[in-house]
Known about the structure:
The structure holds two protein chains of two kinds.
Chain A: H1 4-8, H2 15-20, H3 22-29, E1 37-44, H4 48-59, E2 68-71, H5 76-80, E3 93-96, H6 98-106, E4 119-121, E5 123-128, E6 134-138, E7 153-157, H7 158-171, E8 177-180, E9 183-190, E10 204-210, E11 221-229, H8 236-240, E12 245-261, E13 275-281, E14 286-293, E15 297-305, H9 306-314, H10 317-327, H11 332-339, H12 352-362, E16 374-377, E17 383-392, E18 396-397, E19 400-402, E20 408-409, H13 417-436, H14 445-472, H15 480-494, H16 496-507
Chain B: H1 32-40, H2 53-72, H3 82-86, E1 93-98, H4 104-110, E2 125-131, H5 135-145, H6 149-157, E3 160-163, H7 167-174, E4 201-207, H8 222-231, E5 233-244, H9 248-257, H10 280-296, E6 313-322, E7 326-329, E8 338-344
Parallel strand pairs in B: 1-2, 1-4, 2-3, 4-5
Antiparallel strand pairs in B: 5-8, 6-7, 6-8
Helix pairs in contact in B: 2-4, 8-10
Amino acid sequence: xxxxxxxxxxxxxxxxxxxxxxxxxxxxxxxxxxxxxxxxxxxxxxxxxxxxxxxxxxxxxxxxxxxxxxxxxxxxxxxxxxxxxxxxxxxxxxxxxxxxxxxxxxxxxxxxxxxxxxxxxxxxxxxxxxxxxxxxxxxxxxxxxxxxxxxxxxxxxxxxxxxxxxxxxxxxxxxxxxxxxxxxxxxxxxxxxxxxxxxxxxxxxxxxxxxxxxxxxxxxxxxxxxxxxxxxxxxxxxxxxxxxxxxxxxxxxxxxxxxxxxxxxxxxxxxxxxxxxxxxxxxxxxxxxxxxxxxxxxxxxxxxxxxxxxxxxxxxxxxxxxxxxxxxxxxxxxxxxxxxxxxxxxxxxxxxxxxxxxxxxxxxxxxxxxxxxxxxxxxxxxxxxxxxxxxxxxxxxxxxxxxxxxxxxxxxxxxxxxxxxxxxxxxxxxxxxxxxxxxxxxxxxxxxxxxxxxxxxxxxxxxxxxxxxxxxxxxxxxxxxxxxxxxxxxxxxxxxxxxxxxxxxxxx
Amino acid sequence: xxxxxxxxxxxxxxxxxxxxxxxxxxxxxxxxxxxxxxxxxxxxxxxxxxxxxxxxxxxxxxxxxxxxxxxxxxxxxxxxxxxxxxxxxxxxxxxxxxxxxxxxxxxxxxxxxxxxxxxxxxxxxxxxxxxxxxxxxxxxxxxxxxxxxxxxxxxxxxxxxxxxxxxxxxxxxxxxxxxxxxxxxxxxxxxxxxxxxxxxxxxxxxxxxxxxxxxxxxxxxxxxxxxxxxxxxxxxxxxxxxxxxxxxxxxxxxxxxxxxxxxxxxxxxxxxxxxxxxxxxxxxxxxxxxxxxxxxxxxxxxxxxxxxxxxxxxxxxxxxxxxxxxxxxxxxxxxxxxxxxxxxxxx
Lengths: 508, 347
């Protein structure tokens, strides 16, 4: 009799791989009858989500007995050795919510994060550049003066987090774990029903090959009881599992940079309070945000049109700094004008943007949130990446689960992307722990559906809210939508309990 | 909120038509239509979205209930098997699953067997034997076990085995050939000597079985069936099961709603016979009687409750299915719906 599970499994090989990989497949056909090395969990992708999952599985007594593997194209040795001095910061920084931090603490990874490079902030100023209406997320209103200020989020460089997760995983020992660095997955296929062994016909079998010139390490074919796709927006695992994904491109770019700031004036009270600033710029295509880093540095995330992003990237450091300062201070028409200024052709007119800014500032009433002045931009830190929305039609399929960007990509305006990934990983690790302690197969759909049920709606809600905010704050001018959104912000601002509720939601 | 009865396990039953290699016995405990009903469901047994879905969802709670029983006590380590004592592992319990069907519980238990681990697992299982009278279901169970290399390895090494036989056959395999013990409950002392029906298991499980036992015959009824089950339990071990109480709620939910046509119903029509449902107090009575009958067979015949020995325990815990959420343990709900029950055999 045909085992039922076989009929449930969808083909793991996408059409393009089938056509492109024919010679490779033939080569594997010869050893199809050889039992591949069997793993309980195989995670493709060694970013924060994949490493977070591995660290979480290693941290729990039940799941630490699972035999796990991680496959990463990049050289993880470089990630382990990552180091920067205290005045330089990577431009890939994430805002970790308290629930992400407490997950990282629970799995013992937070101790490995270099705390001198992480920056908490307690307040968040958000305002509409078109109407001036504002909302400030200030925890100090909600806590008694004897308590520590509540943290809205903690800014952490992704490299700092990845290094911490790697060292947490190393600290868990090398039993039952294989890390295949510098390795790509060349194909994923269903296994075979071995007459003298197990029936692996519904199991994904991965063929591994070394990237570049790196020597091959370990077996080239491995079987996965559970294959986890933590392999990003173009997830090969998702394609192999034939899971469709829905979404759109925002036609916006996120411009990031590491900035240094002037001393804050007045000195914040209580001392050490840090604030994040975000100003919506409807006429320029999205919000600009300044998020604090240690030692009076900050990271910039400016969501804007691709043309504006290209313009900003092409500016000299001085002009770039002037544009960032302008973005937090000037009115929309002034900003639009400056964004269209001729790019300086020679260095002697390099201060064109600067002088334009100082002249226009004299004619602009000071807005109430006053972020500190940007005084410098770290060399080579200005970069742009396209903003997209993606949501997979499902996170699970028999013996396959998707986490992080492989499952969903959202607009960065609320800084929730990495936090959703951490939430996925925490949930999947919890699900697998439940499975192991209840005799369930960790790759069985009955196990995995618990994870999907826990995460799908949550992620869809947050992704949808960010999308809605993006669309709402892309309507320029003073029309009814602008009044409506300012009304919304003002109402929230005036009703403390509503704001508290919203902030707790944002906290995760 | 509902007390859905999932699809069930086929019951120990010998039918010459289906089981030519087993002789039919007059005292078989289930009717033929129960067996054919569940054999017909075989092809969808492991379909997570199929008619057995509600049963699959209940399986993790069986592990939790077993764990709660083990916390109350386990049989003392076997003196007859010194090899196990020396290994230093806490996982020494031998399981028997009666009416395993397609192997939903048996396979999940086999997955917890870890011969290399010295740390106690939640089931503390060392081995499991699973019985079902339906050859179709046993074949389904064996085929499915091969899809998990760990379980397949346990099957190969013998720590896990499926037996296509009835409970009566299994008991007989431990008895001397002339004493077909349960055939004459009217003369319970007709003496199978204790040493020929040695209790073999620390934990015997009986999930969704008892309500399918034929209760019309004086020679084959739930009490004779439970007597056989309990005789296989080592002193200090547990007989653990689940069933449904016979209440108005369970009638409406199991007979009217759950077996309604799709999309309302979730279990196939004919899965349950409400009249065979068992209330916890009835079950407790049967178990007590079965324990005394079992004790009467022993060399030391004692009377009354003292025959049950020290350490005997009876536990029940209600469980409720909430659509969209799943099964939850709900204390007190045992009198009107699904419930787990367990009896610990005295020393």
